[in-house]
Amino acid sequence: MVTHIAFWALAVVAVLAGAAVFWVNSMARASYALALSFIAVGVQVLLLQQNYVGVVTILMMVMEMAVMAVYMVMFMGMNPALMPMSMVHDKRHAVAASVGVFVVLAAGVLLVPWPARRGAPAEDVTAALGEELMGPKMLVMVVVGVVMAVTIVAGVVLAAHRTRYDRFGDDLRRRPANDPQPGGVGR
Amino acid sequence: MSDPVTTVPAGWAVAAAGLLGLLTTAAAVFDGVLTARAAGARSSGLGTPVWEVARLLRQRRRSTVAADHLLWRIGGAGLLVMSLMIVTVVPLGRWTLFDLDVGVVWFNAMDVLAWAFVWLTGWGANSAHSLVGGYRFLAHGLAYELPLMFALVAPAVAASSLNVGTVAAAQDGLWFVVWMPVAFLAYCLGAVAIAVWGPFSPALGADIAGGVTAELSGVDRLLFTGGRYALLAAGAAFAVPMFLGGGAGPLLPGWAWVLLKTVAVLAVFVWLRRRLSVLRPDLFMEFGWVVLLPAVLVQDLVVAAIAVGKG
Q: Do B285 and A184 make contact, defined as CB atoms within 8 angstroms?
């Protein structure tokens, strides 16, 4: 009973905090409203006894929002990120799209015949979930993981405007490297 | 397999908070004594925390123009909450408040909150110096967080469990600190960093007028400063079941050993503040990624190989 009430209360918090992302007029408040929304979802997942998934959701989302705060000032320049500003752009299309998505999802919730429970939950629901999601496709998952890591590295390499020739000179012999921001290891 | 720890009723949370409060006070007193001695002051420095608390409680709460009060207060009070959440999963000998099967990840999720809270404290004041401090902390965070995460992986792999009590019980005979010293050092670095302590204090640097704490006054400053000491204490307490054998030790009961080891680690943390130079965020970034992270990953590999070898 208590679990049910907590679950629904967290659902309300998650939705309201998610909506607050668009109501507030500051980047910091929007970021951390989103973090709060994700934390509420993470605790909901904890209530579903998916302990690992729930705690990792909280961990990842808080860290992600903190990193977003770095990028927000890094890429937006100081002023827009630090001044009050609207969090919505292209309002008319956005409202149309979000109302459409909401109607479709809500209709789905109401119209789908939800199945009754068959059998009992597994002993370790986290392991069962992992097995269900990835069990027969483990090789694909492993490959996708490597591909994603390579994509990140390649993206950074392509985006960086300085190459090794800028750092080490035309013959790649200059030591230490000529960096605008020296590192701590003295390479 | 029998459960190595017993969960105590929730009411004991008050006692746990009191215990954390005692450790926090002890850390502050010890730091006061060291400060007085370093300054060559006539007084012993034992009373420093008491006078400081009294002063801050009497001080009027100052605010700044267009401060984001909500986020500022959340950030300032958050460190204390974090430390309380961390100690819920630390077993005191046989007893624990919250016998979570993924307690190690729980600690990790809580320590990441420091990113949010310290930055928010820097942000909320609407002051350039304190915002610079907040970003200095995030820059440190980008360098210490991944080594800290992978340092926590090593004991979990060796014990093949994410439950803190099971990790402590798995060190029967040989403490993890002995055969995973790199992970232990990286963990200690992280524990000191989340408290914005010692080498990681440029976020509060005097060169930026106190950084994150530049505009904090009265009870807000008290909560933030107290939260830092509490985080040091919580970080020291969590090191005990992870690396230092938990309640293992001769003669004394388990809970006494846990407390004794916690106090010892905490004392070293406090003492280190005067022994290590501060780490510049920009220089430490490269160190964290080029030296620390590979070292911890190799440590994990060695631990995993040994764990597989043992079957």
A: yes
Sequence spans of domains, chain B: 6-310
Q: Under an 8 A CB cutoff, do B105 and A26 touch?
A: no
Interface check for B292 against chain A (CB to CB < 8 A): the answer is no
B145–A contact, CB cutoff 8 A = yes
Q: What is the pLDDT of residue B265?
A: 94
DSSP state letters, A11-66: HHHHHHHHHHHHH-S-HHHHHHHHHHHHHHHHHHHHHTT-HHHHHHHHHHHHHHHH
In sequence order, the 6+-apart residues with CB closer than 8 A to the CB of B173 are none
**What are the residue boundaries of the structural domains of chain A, listed by start?**
1-86, 125-187
B71 touches chain A (CB under 8 A): yes
Query: What's the pTM?
Result: 0.87
ipTM of the complex model = 0.84
**CB atoms A55 and B123 under 8 Å:** no
